[in-house]
Amino acid sequence: MEFFVSLIAIALMAIGAVGIIMLEKPMDKVIMFSILDAGFLLTVVLFKYLDVALFVALSGPLSTLVFIMAIVKIKEIRFKKVESGELHD
After folding, report:
1. pTM here?
2. Which of 4, 10, 70, 79 is least surrounded, with the fewest CB atoms within 10 Å of its CB?
């Protein structure tokens, strides 16, 4: 049973890592980061580091929230630069 759970954890981390590298949209990258984070949390629990797993479980959603806030702020800055004519792309 533990072998199958470890395979699921490895698959989640691999899918998340490949998705972060391959996808171009920032929100898709955040989703893939969450999938990678779920696999990492499962791996930490399998190795019975429950105190570390508690920290990972609490910091995962916070880091996702910070990523989303950064994406929104970057979009606002780019929109303002395009509006004012500062961006010449």
Report:
1. 0.81
2. 4
Rounded Cα distance, 45 and 55, in Å? 11
The pLDDT tens digits of the residues spanning 15-60 come to: 999 999 999 999 999 999 999 999 999 999 999 999 999 999 999 8
Domain residue spans of the chain: 1-84
Contact present, 64 and 38 (Cβ < 8 Å):
no
The amino acid sitting at 49 is: Y
Q: What sign has the CA pseudo-torsion 61, 55, 35, 19?
A: positive
Backbone angles phi, psi at 62, to 5 degrees: -65, -40
Q: Which two tokens stand for residue 54?
A: 């508690």
> Secondary structure of 33-62 in the HEC alphabet?
HHHHHHHHHHHHHHCCCHHHHHHHHHHHHH
- Which token pair is 75? 């979009």
